[in-house]
Sequence to fold (651 residues):
Amino acid sequence: MGILEVKGINKRFGGLQALGDVNLSVEENTVHAIIGPNGAGKSTLLNVLVGKLIPDSGSVMFDGQSVLGRKPHEINQMGISRVFQTPEIFTDLTVFENVMIPCFAKRDGAFRMHAVESIFAEKGIRAQAEEMLADVNMLEKRDMVTSSLSRGDKRRLEMAMCLVQDPKLLLLDEPTAGMARADTENTIALLKEIRAKRGITMAIIEHDMNVVFSLAERITVLAQGTPLVEDTPENIKGHPKVREAYLGEAQV
Amino acid sequence: MLGLEKKDFRLLLIVIGLTLFAPIILNPFPAGSEMAQFNAGYPDLMQRFVIFGIFAIGFNILFGLTGYLSFGHAAFLGVGSYSAVWMFKLLSMNVLPAIVLSVIIAGLFSFVIGYISLRRSGIYFSILTLAFAQMSFALAYSVLTPITGGETGLQLALDDPRILGAAQTASGNIPVPALFGLEMRASYEMTVGAWAFTFNVGYYLAALILVLSFYMAIRIFRSPFGLMLRAIKSNQTRMSYTGLNSRPYTLAAFVISGMYAGLAGGLMASMDPLAGAERMQWTASGEVVLMTILGGAGTLIGPVLGAGMIKYFENIFSKINSQVLHEWFGFLPDGLENFVVTIIYPFVGKGWHLTLGIVFMLVVIFLPGGLVQGGQKIAAALKRKKTDDANPGASKPAE
Fold:
């Protein structure tokens, strides 16, 4: 029984069957990649997992509870954090404030009226945020406004904001999309480091085969909204069905 | 100090100092001199400065922090005024229960309007608040005449069924609002040489409440709640994927700013016990938006500065008529005098809006951070100059 169990998900957009009978099981403490050609339904599946889309049928269980019908913030409170294709961070706020916000969300829940307490007096939260920033080597940038950060630093910060909540599952939506070679390598290194240090469960949606094969421990291949195979990276590489549907065109 | 950081505490002290000595600071010209018309230190105007300051501080908590632009905040101010006047009519002429009730009623009213309006964001939110405010105005103006006094507004009468206190004074007049016997209109005049200063009870009550409101605003700005509101302005997507529900945060900010508006309305009625529907009109809502942006949205002191500036323009600049202009430029040859007066005249007196509009445009274009940003730029320039003076040649490359 995995930490995330997706069973028989169907989703139609008008005449298009975006997801057809998708089953997926993400085991605890693994890095699970979901790959597939364009239009395979990867993003739709991700949006179902985070509560942005509601499927027509099927069930999504996380840690023994259904996530369907819950709002994104409720799903995050259950322990799923998400990293976006283009980093979603709080621009106009400082790096340090950016990391403090998820700390408050973790401690106080979705809404709490701390209207007169000073943020300067929140010793526990500040220490937690500082530790996290030190962990991703961004402590010296703590007082910078995030809009002036480089793209790589933005990605790093977003990752820190997710990790500081100590999620049970980290969802990554094409974390290297549109990145230069060097940035991609950095991101892979960062993810490997996080994986080694924290042993966190990750689900990655990715296009870049290099990223997938250097990180994933399990791979699910989606094609036309249906899972084709699920296996280890070694077996996926040589799988004839996968070659036919996907890898053949990419010449890996 | 008082749970504030050093910098914020200094700002609070500045505000306390300014409000305390406002009757002196605002009257820099000797009474009876030609410049005396620029003196703003008379009770009526000073009261307006601080009351609109409170209104703008509250508005800034919503607009400055969350970025939700409400175009209907005057409705809460109007509701506050009506509540206060009804309290005078029914309970007592003491301003304290009147102000408390106006804050509570405005809070409830803003909860209902906020709950509905906050289902949308951006321009749709603004339009919804505007629609609600105009509905409130229309209701107050006609449908609810028995409660609001309709066109003439709600006034005290000689036969008000006041529970605590008499309906009439011994001399048969309507009693005036007071704080435990201290009448709001009571003033102490002080003459120093050619200068005349007026210290008014109503002003000092309003100023005390402004200082308290300002202090509360600083606490909110620097609290985890304030940080969440800034996060909402910055990125709502990240907000919800961080496990935070932005709806109750925005609603809380909306209600708090509505209560500030109600407080301002209650104070307004306490200074002069009448309330009219025009206080709820959209122009009044727009005015507080202008004040906040002019002073600097999202800054602590900005809204107060903006409110002061607009009220100064409205009351002082508007008094300059063509006769005054002719006096000023009387030293010029006749033809030139008339020419200069003709050029300047549209911008002063009744045309004060024109000048205000130009100032507003200049501020928005060159100082998007408002007057506060202007102040910061000047301070930075002075600082640079000082360091240059201290070690000349430091900025030049070494030879």
Observations:
- The radius of gyration of chain B is 23 Å.
